[in-house]
Amino acid sequence: MQPFLDRPLERLRKVGVRVGDVVVGGGAPVVVQSMTNTDTADVDGTVAQVAALHRAGSEMVRITVDRDESAAAVPHIRDRLARLGVNVPLIGDFHYIGHKLLADHPDCAAALAKYRINPGNVGFKDKRDKQFAEIIELAIRHDKPVRIGVNWGSLDQDLLTRLMDENQKAGSPLTAVEVMREAIVQSALISAELAEEIGLPRDRIILSAKVSQVQDLIAVYVELAKRSDHALHLGLTEAGMGTKGVVASSAAMGILLQQGIGDTIRISLTPEPGGDRTREVQVAQELLQTMGFRQFVPIVAACPGCGRTTSTVFQELAATIQDDLRRNMPVWREKYPGVEELKVAVMGCIVNGPGESKHADIGISLPGTGETPAAPVFIDGEKAMTLRGPAIADDFQKLLADYIERRFGAGRQAAE
Fold it and tell me: Which residues form a coiled coil (predicted)?
């Protein structure tokens, strides 16, 4: 019998790449990345969104640099963020004319912490290698790392055509999908090899290979991980909106992360109209946290509810506590070191409530239908008290705040 896996497989050791103050690969924790959807030329709007993404927990933020106005705005965005105390690495996303924008705007080239280029549209025909080389040379000059990001929607058609022709001459041993996957992998590897030949060190290169189907992403990255020791950025492109995007991204990246593949991730969600862009950061954090790779916020265990829990008190309390914990984390990371390890339980009846609460650092078992209107509270595995009356939820929140202060804050320091 095969042993059970009680933890994720050990991460595949990839070359470490420093992006500003963040290390990607080299055994460092998996890094959470996000991307703005503002017009980068809008300095106020972009600064506000970058700051919001960083407060939510994004450790690197990518911004679009698509024209002169955007490139000219980048140094101002960096400076404004610094004045706000937001020291998050900014990544410039370049397509088509990246070589020209970086050359014409040296302050932009210097302000960015990393460049992201797509070998499928960095240039076309005889200009492709020349313009690719110009970007790499600029990265070397400014001592910046580069993410070579292949995307199946803009795959090098010359490479794909050549591989299709070779497959046909060989009697078509591969399907069209398999050839497409191979073209994606080869595009990344060939581009990385060319960058190194030009002079960009391996520890300044990150690779990515974006597709929009779960099985394609898994197959491409497994192969890429076998054939390269470059740091890898994971992401399912065009993942979609709402639960579809969350489930697809989590399914694909969860499998890869479990195999030790991936050094930085982004959850590419299509936001609802007027929706919160930071949702993609929250999902990325929750994926890494639930898989045991990182700890970002305290865990709130809450029962799903059943016929025993006709009261909505436990649902409202669990939602309130979870929202409060996430909202307060930017401050609590500094004020309460280690608070992200906290485990809270909010349960709805006597069946599993006491047991789950005992396993948490602090937990409450609310009365279910027909049960005595009392709520035992467990702290550090022991029953500490029983709450009664209409203010049970408020009373428990106060107990939680006191517990956090005592264990992680000034109370702990005084005790020491």
Answer: none
Per the annotation, binding residues are 303, 306, 349, 356
260 and 211, same domain (yes or no): yes
Residues 248 and 321 in one domain: no
Does the predicted TM-score (pTM) go above 0.85? yes
Task: Please write down the long-range contacts of 66-70, taking CB distance under 8 Å and 24 or more positions apart.
Answer: 66/40, 66/94, 66/95, 66/97, 67/41, 67/97, 67/101, 68/101, 68/104, 68/105, 69/41, 70/39, 70/40, 70/41, 70/101
Instruction: Based on the fold, state whether residues 167 and 313 are members of the same structural domain.
Output: no
Last residue of a domain, one of 291, 325, 359: 291
Last residue of a domain, one of 269, 291, 313: 291
38, 45 Cβ separation under 8 angstroms: yes
Residues 286 and 380 in one domain: no
Give the pair of three-digit tokens for residue 83: 């004045």
Output the known binding site for [4Fe-4S] cluster. Answer: 303, 306, 349, 356
pLDDT in tens, the chain (416 residues): 444 455 555 667 789 999 999 999 999 999 999 999 999 999 999 999 999 999 999 999 999 999 999 999 999 999 999 999 999 999 999 999 999 999 999 999 999 999 999 998 887 777 888 999 999 999 999 999 999 999 888 888 888 889 999 989 998 898 999 999 999 999 999 999 999 999 999 999 999 998 989 999 999 999 999 999 999 999 998 777 788 989 999 999 999 999 999 999 999 988 888 888 999 999 999 999 999 999 888 888 887 877 777 667 778 888 888 888 888 888 888 889 999 899 998 888 778 778 888 899 999 888 777 777 788 999 999 999 999 988 888 898 899 999 999 999 875 655 55
